[in-house]
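Two proteins follow. First one:
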Amino acid sequence: MSAPDPTFAVAFGGGGARGLAHIHAIEALDELGIRPVAIAGSSIGAIMGAGMAAGMTGRQIRAYAATMLGSPTEVARRVWGSRPGSIREAVAGGFRFGQFDIVRILKSFLPDAVPATFEELKIPLSITGTDYYGHSLMVMEQGDLISAIGASAAIPAVFRPVTREDRLLVDGGIHNPVPFDLLTGKAEFVIAIDVVGAPEEGDKPPSAIDLMFGASQLMMQSIIDAKLAIDQPDIFLRPPVSKFRVLDFMKINQVLAETEALKDELKRAVAAIAEQRV
């Protein structure tokens, strides 16, 4: 009698546009015939994880992302469509940096395949958020899905915080950039993909914005290192994404081209642990 097939769970890390590299990982799992039994995601990882948990293939996610992000006209149209519904709403709380409403933007950009609630997903999904006043991690696994994704992707100074369950939530990557620890015990093997990146030296000194986002990267990498010192997933991969900025979504073709090796790297890693299991 042959042994049952191994089970896998996947953690998709946060990193803004750098997380477009997750598409390669999803495609690799599709090609291997692996359907995760659980998924966890932070920030862009929550978005990618929701697509996979909804039943979308990597190829479908790639095609949709290319359509949405490959055309400046399409991006502008959808951003315009997600603008506040009234002047009163736009100025609520006063004009300020970081006025964009991430939930509105997600509703404009997410594919129809992503449902409204966690309960409608085909694979269990855990999404991280950072409780701003509670100073703690908030894990979301039920109820409204779009607000959970929005909370996880609410990058400070870019998007408004999201209120959920009476808590003010910001970017889940601040507290848990690659949430592989949420998958402990849920599968035989855990895969984690880190797309946080790190500041790279360039021809010009970093701007104030570069320094702000770069410092955030360093903070998140220190959190990841601390987590890895305690426990490690069975597969942990870091595609080369550091040359891209957090909001470089319009560079989707470049991000995918630079990180293409991730697909084969993940396939080799899965084959290696499968051999060990035998």
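Second one, unrelated to the first:
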Amino acid sequence: MTLVAGVDSSTQSCKVVIRDAETGALVREGRAPHPDGTEVHPDAWWSALDQALEQAGGLADVAAASVAAQQHGMVCLDAGGQVVRPALLWNDTRSAQAALDLIAELGGEAAWAEAIGSVPVASFTVTKLRWLAEHEPAAADRTAAVCLPHDWLTWRLGGAADLSALVTDRGDASGTGYWSPATNQYRMDLLKRAFGREPLLPRVLGPAGRAGSLPNGAALGPGTGDNAAAALGVGIRPGDVVVSIGTSGTVFTVADKPTADASGYVAGFADATGRYLPLVCTLNAARVLDAAAAMLRVDHAELSRLALSAPPGADGLVLVPYLEGERTPNRPLATGAVHGLTLRTATPAHLARAAVEGMLCALADGLDALTAQGVTVTRVALVGGGARSEAVRRIAPAVFGCPVLVPPPGEYVADGAARQAAWVALGGDEPPEWTLGPEETYEADPVPAIRERYAAARDHVVSRR
């Protein structure tokens, strides 16, 4: 049996899976937590990876390994390879003004969409580099190279010889704001515009390129960003749309042609197979459920039961879930809001239902944005931690207006990284076909009024000062 390892270094934790390269069968796994916050020193990721690997039985017997990680995070290294400052994560919104400035300087949203397929928001690395140059010039001056979380972990696993050994892939590079999926090239002019100069960037490998070797001689795959890895893990093809409910909410598909949405709703990313990954991302997803459970002082199972005990539409109660600001639509300073509160709707069941429906309505807006870009939708797959909620599974078809498929629970990002590692180990033009378990289908009558009420409420939010 040829074994491969996949790593998911997410916002909240590090997960490792060891799988059979040919069949995808799970052999063993491990996990370890990450610290909270929107900036984290990369050493914390390395420590968590070490713990997760130990729990998973190590890498001594694997033929290949790949790392997937949260996108966009800014990791700055000095000339000696030392971390200059804690990494700013994708969900750090302090660079919101930098994003607006960069958009204006280049000539507007359409100019950015044409240049990189996306309109930068505070999540993108390019905006964080502008913030660093403006607010921490000493740290900016020390920065000799800039990479992403998965780049840095891959580099460390390969021995961290020198900065020239840094590599990345198309999927993660496409979220920086200075690499174009359409041309497969860095836009050094955009990097210089943001940062004032051109630090070293990782070399971009092909989908099954070799990034280096582990101490046992096993191959290191190129790795990728979390969403591109999830697409590999679920095994989606053009026409499939994945709605992922994790720390962030994402709606994405695999396409044969690049997209360029000047509205900024759809990010025109690349995937991990040589194709493209048009994607909509919301900042608020599973944590909306966490917040609702905390407010009601119940666990997630009881939150689900309460939500399903209320009628569709929650008798008009609407929750707009901008609890951490929002990325799509681009409202980094927005706050959440509850509308339609009456004596009738002032119950735990109504609030639970409104929280689930509000989160799903925000994701349904993302589905609409994809179809507006010409994406063909043949089926929707629901994944992520939030998809484990029975209420989410049963309410989603009513909100999305179509049946929803739920694959078996799994670590799809780590699984995607493992599938990439298997591709590197086994060779071939495409990653190996894996069948990881049966899907469940959920259906419900569409309830258009849910989204209509949400649309009427979503713009009436208050911004933090």
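SUMMARY FIELD: The chain has a mean pLDDT of 94. The longest strand covers residues 13-20.
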